[in-house]
Structure formats: C-alpha cells, structure tokens
Write a structure and sequence with these properties.
about 240 residues, mainly alpha, 2 domains, two-stranded antiparallel sheet, 6 helices, about 60% helix, elongated
C-alpha cells in the first residue's frame, strides 16, 4: 500500500495550486458572476417585452366594417318611418322623410277641411231651411243674397244665379274630395318609398362602383317617317369583366 505523502496527494497539490493562483481564480469567478447576472437580466427583459406585446395585441380593439342587414333595415322602416334610414346610418335622409310626410299630411288636412266646408254649404243651400246658412261663408259678401237665396228671398232671387252658385259649390266639393283622397294616397306612397329606400340602401351599402362600370348619357338624333329628324337622349352602360 502506497503511503499518503505530499508528492502523491492530489488534493494537496490542488490546494497548493489554488493558493498560488488565488488572485486569478478570484478574478475569473467575479467575471463569471457578472456574466451570469447579465444573462439573467436579459432573459427577464425578453420575457417582460414578450408579455407586454401579447397584452397589447389582446387589448387592441378589432374594428369591424359596418354592413347593414337588408331584412332588418326593411322591418325597421316598416315599424316606424325613418328607423330604416337611421339603421343604415343615412342620417341626412331623415329630414327628407319627415318633410315629405309633413307636407302630405298638411295637404290632406287642408283639402279635408275645405271639403267639409263646401259640403256643409251645399247641404245648407239645398235643404230649404232658413236657419242653416253656412253657404254665406263661401259666397263672396259683395254678392247680394237676394239674388241667389231661394229660401230667405223666394221673391227676389234669380234662378240662374242660384243654379250657378249651387253648381259652383258642388264642383268645389268634388275638387277638394279628389285632392284629399290623393293626399291620403300620397302618404301611403311616401311610406312605401321610405321602406324601399331603406331596403335599397342596405342592399347597396357596400356596393363597389369601380372603373369597370361606366354609364354615359349623350344627346342623339333619329329619323322619323316623312323625312323628319327627332332628338332624344341616349343612355349607354358598359361593364368590363
């Protein structure tokens, strides 16, 4: 068995070597320690940056392009005039819709009022009762009632004058009745137009009009029988595929 001596003891040699190069070992350890700290900090910063980017990517709002639904726009326009235009975000059309309804409702009220006025006047003029004289409101005050009123003035009235005012009141009754009915039809028609407008707006909201679609309007001349020449307008559409 070999005796443990300083010459063959490796641990003793390692200790002696460390003591001889103590300063160099300390410097190497310090340098390694600094490098390790720098690497740890860099890894930490990279993780923080990645986490921040992920957070921003999740938090960023996604913008969706508005695309109205045709059925929804139509049903809203049916339920109440103007709602379809609001849903389609065509706010400038709302005053137009209500201006049309306002004008038509005013016209209907005006014609209805005058229709009732002349109808009452005609009935009072032909009923033979002295107390009912609403016709005096529609006949000019400058005309003497003695010339046309057969009820109050049977001895002085003129038959042709009385017939003239009776027929005139009946014509006014027909006139205001016709335009009152047309006003009601206009209200219904404007209501349908507002629905149709909302439907078409929703259908063509995202319609792309590019250079592939071209519409041209130009004057034109064409021959007529007998050697005559007529004028008109030519409308042409070109679609490029």
């Amino acid at each position: 068995m070999t005796a443990l001596t300083p010459e063959n003891n490796y641990l003793y040699r390692a200790v002696i070597l460390v003591l001889e190069y103590k300063d160099q070992f300390v410097l190497i350890l310090k340098t390694f320690h600094k490098i390790l700290i720098i690497l740890i900090l860099q890894l930490f910063c990279i993780q923080q940056n990645t986490f921040a980017q992920d957070t921003l990517a999740v938090a960023r709002p996604v913008k969706h392009k508005f695309k109205p639904e045709t059925l929804k726009a139509t049903m809203m326009a049916v339920s109440f005039p103007g709602l379809g235009q609001i849903y389609n975000r065509k706010y400038w059309k709302i005053p137009v819709v209500y201006a049309g309804f306002g004008a038509l409702i005013y016209t209907a009220g005006f014609n209805s009022k005058n229709y009732n006025l002349y109808m009452k006047a005609y009935q009072d003029f032909t009923d033979g009762i002295k107390e009912t004289d609403s016709y005096l409101k529609v006949i000019s005050p400058s005309v003497d009632p003695k010339t046309y009123d057969p009820v109050k003035y049977p001895l002085t009235y003129n038959l042709s004058t009385a017939s003239y005012y009776r027929d005139a009141m009946l014509r006014m009754v027909d006139y205001y009745k016709r335009y009152r009915d047309l006003s009601y039809i206009g209200i219904a028609g404007w209501y349908l137009i507002s629905i149709l407008d909302a439907n078409v707006d929703a259908s063509l909201f995202n319609y792309d009009i590019s250079n592939n679609l071209d519409i041209a309007v130009a004057p034109m001349q064409f021959s007529l029988p007998g050697g005559f020449v007529g004028t008109g307008i030519n409308v042409s559409m070109k679609v490029t595929f």
